[in-house]
Design goal:
By secondary structure, the chain is an alpha+beta fold. The protein contains four helices and eight strands. Strands 1-2-3-4 form a four-stranded antiparallel sheet. A four-stranded antiparallel sheet has the order 5-6-7-8, with no helix packed on it. Helix 1 runs antiparallel to helix 2. It is globular, with a radius of gyration of 48 Å. The N and C termini lie far apart (111 Å).
Length: 237
């Protein structure tokens, strides 16, 4: 409805009310006049310049504020208690005299020993895995596991054979040993055995064994066995 249409309608309603008032007398005229004013107010409320009328916007809604998620406090892991592997091996009566004789610093001044720390036996202190190798070719010649009991390290696993190496994998001991056929050079074994051990009671028990056979199409030359070790002959403790 436009402003012009609103004004014309109002005039017609007002004139009709006046005629009715004149015909009915003074009282009716006053009533008609009031009716005309009421119509005028209704038209004024219902029609606006924009022609949209009034709207009920409803209650205002306040968006909730996001609260930050508190960051949990983290503490640094306690340092792992380390040991001197060479000192440990020399004082262990289970280590053969052959390994103890080979346990000498390499030309660089360091011992050919790898050490790993981890939970293998369920103790409160990490267990220690020690691998002894040759200096020149880093071929494993012995692997050991030590468990601390009453502040004393006790050997609970030992293998003293050529080309052996042990690691910790998700709480289990994984032993890898190269397999040599007669005439195999040290750098090119015929295969390897991968054996997984788990701690049970007071000792390690074998769980899995995998044999990997290598292709004989690679390798083009013999490599001398380190320190006079024959890789095809297992050593006795």
């Amino acid at each position: 409805m436009t402003a012009g249409q609103s004004t014309a309608g109002t005039a017609r309603l007002t004139a009709r009310a006046a005629r009715t008032a004149r015909a009915a007398g003074p009282c009716a005229a006053g009533t008609a006049a009031l009716a005309g004013v009421a119509v005028l107010c209704l038209l004024a409320a219902g029609c606006s310049t924009g022609g949209t009328g009034t709207r009920d916007e409803g209650a205002a809604v306040t968006a909730p504020l996001e609260r930050g998620v508190p960051t949990p406090a983290t503490s640094a892991a306690p340092p792992v208690k380390t040991v001197d592997p060479a000192w440990l091996l020399r004082r262990d009566p289970k280590v053969s005299a052959r390994i103890k004789a080979a346990l000498k610093p390499c030309p660089e001044g360091a011992y050919p020993v790898d050490t790993s720390y981890g939970n293998l036996t369920g103790g409160s202190v990490p267990d220690v895995v020690v691998n002894v190798m040759t200096c020149g070719d880093a071929v494993g010649i012995g692997t050991y596991v030590y468990r601390e009991t009453d502040r004393t390290y006790r050997c609970v696993f030992a293998v003293e054979e050529p080309a052996v190496y042990a690691t910790i994998d998700r709480g289990e001991l994984v032993l890898t040993q190269q397999v040599y056929a007669k005439g195999d050079p040290v750098a090119y074994p015929s295969g390897e055995d991968v054996v997984t051990y788990s701690w049970s009671g007071n000792r390690f028990t074998e769980r899995y064994r995998v044999r990997n056979n290598y292709s004989s199409a690679v390798g083009d030359g013999a490599v001398q066995a380190p320190d006079g070790v024959d890789p095809t002959v297992p050593r006795q403790n």
